[in-house]
Amino acid sequence: MPRTKIKLITLDLDDTLWPNTKVIVAAENAMWKFILSKFPDLKKSFSDALISDIRTALVKKDPSLKFDLTRFRKAIIKKLLLDHGEEESSATYYSNAAFNEFFKVRNKVQLYRDAKIMLERLSRKVNIVSLSNGNADLSLIGINNFFVDQVSSKDVQSNKPSAGHFNRALEIGKCQPKEALHIGDCPINDIGGARNCNFNTLWFNCDKRKWDEIVPCELQAKTWKEVYLAINKNFILEKVDV
Questions:
Q1: Buried b vs exposed e over 39-57: b needs ≥16 C-beta within 10 Å?
Q2: Model-level pTM?
Q3: pLDDT at position 213
Q4: Phi, psi at 2, each rounded to 5°
Q5: Is 55 helix (H, G, I), strand (E, B) or coil?
Q6: Closest CA to 233 of 221, 242, 215
Q7: Which one of 47, 65, 159, 165 is most buried, counting C-beta atoms within 10 A?
Q8: pLDDT at 1 (0 to 100)
């Protein structure tokens, strides 16, 4: 089969460029350790159930928080401190300080093997845009120079698999869906969302999971070297001015 011409690669971040679960756990531990060190009396009532109740109440009051994880985390901490009897100014200050502790750890990621090298090679040949439901900072991670732009849930007020991320990327890349390739780890948020927008797709499956969706994903890779080889085998890359 002839190779498809691609003018844009869109790329998920968490669990596609780096393993994310341990990073988030460590970041949350750092955040709560900071808060509990400043407010030791909170230890008596602090629990996952309490945080879950606060989270649910905040989203019910302001659904847009679901699309801005930075503001959401700060709001959770602030509400916790206000309920604890802290004044508004103190609750605001410590919610910001605690989030800073979270964010420092959240961006200390370890890229998958060969990911940075392959990103650098691809960025010379085609425009790359990151599409994330999260709030990783590519500048802090040190790979922002490989991307022409970044699209977050905050930017489009929706989460993948909704079309917002993908449609915005097409505007940035000045191309049609058939000229775009999305790479991601999640069968639903990434592959399903991209397919619904008529993108080409490549499933990053480093855990060698079985595909359990109705329509199989023909293109997949378990390493970043395989990602690069699959792209070169199936697509012709073209870099356009944006």
A1: beebeeebeeeebeebbee
A2: 0.93
A3: 75
A4: -65, 150
A5: helix
A6: 221
A7: 165
A8: 64
Task: Give DSSP secondary structure letters for 84-99.
Answer: TT--HHHHHHHHHHHH
For residues 182 and 163, the answer to whether their CB atoms sit within 8 Å is no
Alpha carbon distance, N-terminus to C-terminus of the chain: 29
Q: Which residues are bridge partners to 127 per DSSP? A: 8
Q: From CA 179, how far away is CA 158, in angstroms rounded?
A: 23
Measured over the CA atoms of residue 231, residue 233, residue 239 and residue 240, the dihedral's sign is: negative
Give one DSSP letter per residue of 105-147, joined into a string. HHT---PPTTHHHHHHHHHHHSEEEEEESS---HHHHT-GGG-
pLDDT tens, 6-18? 999 999 999 999 9
What pLDDT is attached to residue 146?
A: 98
Q: How far is CA 191 from CA 128, 197, 200, 240, in A?
A: 17, 10, 9, 24
User: Helices 88-106 and 69-83, interaxial angle, to 10°?
Assistant: 140
What residue type is 159 in one-letter code? N
Q: Which two tokens stand for residue 22?
A: 């341990």
Distances (CA, A) of 23 to 20, 26, 143: 5, 5, 17
Contact 14, 152 (CB under 8 A): no
pLDDT of 214: 67
Mind listing the pLDDT tens digit for each residue in 49-100?
999 999 999 999 999 999 999 999 999 999 999 999 999 999 999 999 999 9
